[in-house]
C-alpha cells in the first residue's frame, strides 16, 4: 500500500463511508511474528513507520467496534475516527513482551475513546458522569427485551446484573428517554404562539433578578435584626443611638449630655457600649 493510500485510511471521510471500509479491509493483517517485530521496533527505536503499520493493519477492527455503537444516532465516520484515536493510544502503550496480541490490548482503548465521544455528543446535557452511570448508559439498551419502559421486575434484574441500585436504573432510563429541546423556535412554532424555547429565557445582562431579590431579602433581614437588637437596649441607650445615628438631624454628644445631665464623655461611653451590644446581638 502506498503512503498516500495509508494517509487516506487514517483520515475517515465524512461522505462515502463504504469506500473507506473497503479500503481498510484491503489492508493485509499481520502475523503474530510481524506484529511482535514491529512493536519491538517501535518500543526500542521509536520507529514511527512501524507504529503506522501496526495502526493500519488494525483499522478494520476499529470499524467493527464502531458499528456496535450505530444505535446512538451519531455519524459513523466520527465513531470510527474516535476509535482510531484509541487505537493509536493503544499502539503507543503496547508491550510485545507480555505475550498478548495487539487486538486484545487495543479493544479497551478503542471503546474508551468511543464511549467518551458518545457521552459528549448523544445529549447536549451530560447524562452520565459517574462510573456507575456510564456503566448503565452503555448496558441499559442491551438489557431491554422489549420496547417501552422497564417494569419493576426488569428494573430489579438490571440493577442486580450491573451492580447498581434500582433508583439509578430508573433515573438513567428517564434520562435516555428524554429529548433535547431546540434552542430556538421554528417559524411554524413561532406563529402558533404555544411553544417555548431556551432562547426565550436568555439572561438579560442589564438586570439581575436573582441579585435584586437577594439584596431585598438581605436588607429586610438586616433591618429586622437591627430593630430586634435595639429593642434589647435600655431606653436611654436607644435614645442616644437614635439621636446620634438614626435621626435626620443628628445631635452632638454635648446636646445629649445637657439632656441627661451627664458629661459628654459619659454619653460617648453609653454610645460605645450600646454599639458593642448591638454587634454582639446581631452576630
Walkthrough of the structure:
- This protein is an all-alpha fold.
- The protein has three domains: 120 residues, Four Helix Bundle (Hemerythrin (Met), subunit A), CATH 1.20.120; 72 residues, no CATH class; 74 residues, Winged helix-like DNA-binding domain superfamily/Winged helix DNA-binding domain (Arc Repressor Mutant, subunit A, Orthogonal Bundle), CATH 1.10.10.10.
- Helices cover 66% and strands 0% of the residues.
- Helix 12 crosses helix 15.
- It is elongated and about 110 Å long.
- The N terminus is likely disordered.
Helices and strands in order, then pairings?
Blueprint (H helix, E strand, L loop, with lengths): L2 H8 L6 H9 L6 H14 L2 H9 L2 H9 L8 H18 L8 H20 L9 H9 L12 H11 L3 H12 L9 H6 L16 H23 L3 H12 L6 H8 L3 H19 L1
Helix pairs in contact: 3-4, 5-6, 5-7, 6-7, 8-10, 9-10, 12-15, 13-15, 14-15
Summed up:
The chain has helices at residues 3-10, 17-25, 32-45, 48-56, 59-67, 76-93, 102-121, 131-139, 152-162, 166-177, 187-192, 209-231, 235-246, 253-260, 264-282.
Descriptive labels:
283 residues, mainly alpha, Four Helix Bundle (Hemerythrin (Met), subunit A), Arc Repressor Mutant, subunit A, 3 domains, 15 helices, 66% helix, disordered N terminus
**Structural class, from secondary structure content?**
mainly alpha
Helix content: 55-70%
What's the story with the biggest beta sheet? Answer: none
Examine the secondary-structure arrangement and name the CATH architecture of the largest domain.
Answer: Up-down Bundle
Question: Whole-Å distance between the termini?
Answer: 79 Å
Amino acid at each position: 500500500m502506498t503512503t498516500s493510500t495509508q494517509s487516506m485510511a487514517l483520515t475517515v471521510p465524512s461522505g462515502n463511508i463504504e469506500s473507506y471500509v473497503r479500503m481498510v479491509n484491503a489492508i493485509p493483517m499481520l502475523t503474530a511474528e510481524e506484529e511482535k517485530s514491529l512493536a519491538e521496533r517501535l518500543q526500542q527505536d521509536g520507529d514511527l513507520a512501524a507504529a503506522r503499520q501496526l495502526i493500519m493493519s488494525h483499522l478494520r477492527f476499529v470499524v467493527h467496534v464502531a458499528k456496535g455503537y450505530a444505535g446512538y444516532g451519531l455519524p459513523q465516520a466520527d465513531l470510527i475516527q474516535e476509535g482510531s484515536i484509541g487505537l493509536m493510544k493503544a499502539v503507543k502503550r503496547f508491550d510485545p513482551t507480555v505475550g498478548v496480541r495487539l487486538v486484545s490490548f487495543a479493544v479497551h482503548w478503542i471503546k474508551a475513546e468511543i464511549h467518551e465521544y458518545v457521552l459528549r455528543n448523544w445529549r447536549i446535557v451530560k447524562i452520565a458522569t459517574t462510573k456507575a452511570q456510564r456503566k448503565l448508559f452503555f448496558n441499559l439498551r442491551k438489557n431491554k427485551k422489549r420496547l417501552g419502559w422497564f417494569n419493576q421486575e426488569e428494573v430489579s434484574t438490571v440493577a442486580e446484573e450491573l451492580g447498581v441500585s434500582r433508583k439509578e436504573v430508573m433515573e438513567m432510563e428517564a434520562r435516555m428517554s428524554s429529548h433535547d429541546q431546540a434552542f430556538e423556535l421554528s417559524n411554524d412554532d413561532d406563529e402558533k404562539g404555544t411553544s417555548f424555547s431556551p432562547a426565550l429565557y436568555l439572561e438579560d445582562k442589564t438586570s439581575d433578578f436573582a441579585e435584586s431579590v437577594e439584596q431585598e431579602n438581605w436588607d429586610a433581614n438586616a433591618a429586622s435584626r437591627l430593630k430586634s437588637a435595639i429593642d434589647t437596649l435600655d431606653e436611654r441607650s436607644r435614645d442616644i443611638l437614635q439621636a446620634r445615628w438614626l435621626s435626620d438631624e443628628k445631635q452632638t454628644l454635648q446636646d445629649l449630655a445637657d439632656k441627661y445631665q451627664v458629661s459628654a464623655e459619659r454619653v460617648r461611653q453609653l454610645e460605645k457600649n450600646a454599639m458593642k451590644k448591638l454587634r454582639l446581638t446581631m452576630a
